[in-house]
Amino acid sequence: MKLLDALVEQRIAAAAARGEFDALPGAGAPLPLGDDALVPEEVRVANRILKNAGFVPPAVEQLRALRDLQTELNAVSDPATRCRLQARMLALDMALESLRGGPLVLPREYCRRIAERLSERAGNLNAAEAGSR
């Protein structure tokens, strides 16, 4: 097999030296790479099958959920609802960060306490609104 590979490489080099590749369409332009260019070749087929069947990685689902929450947050003016949405966004963001495997900027315990306080604040705002009615 190595002999065949060497022969192919030799013929490609000879054709390039003669300039046979210079007039090809797209010569000098970057190659159009698909969204799976960095995925190992042995995994691409499985990913394509899953993608075509409608399955997406958990990180993609969470990014979509974050985008939807952000859209909802932009449309809401109620402070209690905004706090609840922010708490859900924080929880999703923490889950996404753990899927990435990257280090969190803030310790998990700290983020959990922030989410709890946001939830408490939302509850307090709801109670205050109910009392003012």
Quick overview:
The protein has 133 residues and is mainly α. It has a domain of 75 residues. The protein is built from five helices and no strands.
Q: Pairing-aware structural class of the strands and helices? A: mainly alpha
How far apart lie the N and C ends? Answer: 83 Å
Computed Rg: 26 Å
Biggest sheet record: none
Output mean pLDDT: 78
How much β-strand is present in the residues?
under 5%
The helicity comes to over 70%
Question: Globular, elongated, flat, extended or rod-shaped: what is the shape?
Answer: elongated
User: How many DSSP E strands?
Assistant: 0
Model description:
This protein is mostly helical and 133 residues long. The chain has a domain of 75 residues. It has five helices and no strands.
State the main characteristics.
mainly alpha; 71% helix; 0% strand; elongated; 133 residues
Q: Topology of this structure?
A:
Layout: H1 2-18, H2 41-52, H3 58-75, H4 79-100, H5 108-132
Helix pairs in contact: 3-4, 4-5
